[in-house]
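User: Could you go from structure to sequence for me? I need the amino acid at each position, not a summary. Structure tokens:
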């Protein structure tokens, strides 16, 4: 009996509980709902929009910066880990956040009857579309291919390093477009 209890305790120690994180998320959600309950729909959409953008673009920028650091250090193992994180984040975090950002942005435009004929709205939508297509059509398949190359040849292989550099270059351009969209949304040029 003691051996089984020890094994169970060891397994519990290896895998931390997600309960504290779930409680924190629930409390944050409840407080956010309280804050927004007496506000307009526009402010609710704007809040969802800003949070989605922070998750999407902030996460992408962070991964890009870590990738640059690993690339400069010529650390194939770290670069491989970042490639795996990027593949995971792209599918499960960035894509839903991007869709939520554009949906809440459209909801704001409709809610205030702004119309879609303003330069800053058109630029924002085109920026979103270009980066979304690059993310799903280019970066996601390349990240999967990088993972396969890493598994086959190892993270220190020169071919893997060159391929990772290509991904990072595209990611830098993608992040630059997204940052320009943020500047566009904040400054609302030509309006």
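Assistant: Here is the amino acid at each position, in order:
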């Amino acid at each position: 009996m003691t051996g089984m209890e020890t094994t169970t305790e060891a397994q519990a120690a290896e895998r931390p509980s997600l309960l504290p994180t779930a409680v924190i998320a629930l409390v944050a959600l409840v407080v956010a709902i309280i804050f927004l309950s007496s506000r307009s729909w526009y402010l609710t959409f704007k809040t969802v929009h800003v949070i989605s953008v922070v998750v999407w673009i902030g996460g992408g920028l962070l991964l890009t910066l870590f990738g640059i650091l690993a690339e400069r250090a010529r650390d194939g193992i770290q670069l491989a880990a970042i490639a795996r994180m990027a593949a995971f984040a792209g599918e499960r975090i960035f894509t839903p956040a991007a869709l939520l950002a554009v949906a809440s942005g459209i909801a704001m435009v409709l809610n205030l009857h702004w119309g879609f004929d303003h330069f800053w709205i058109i630029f924002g939508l085109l920026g979103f579309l270009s980066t979304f297509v690059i993310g799903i059509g280019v970066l996601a398949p390349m990240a999967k291919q990088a993972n396969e190359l890493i598994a086959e040849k190892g993270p220190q292989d020169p071919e893997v390093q060159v391929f990772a550099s290509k991904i990072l270059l595209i990611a830098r351009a993608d992040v630059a477009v997204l940052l320009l969209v943020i500047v566009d949304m904040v400054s609302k040029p030509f309006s």
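One structural detail worth keeping in mind: The helical segments are 2-14, 19-36, 41-72, 76-111, 119-153, 158-187.
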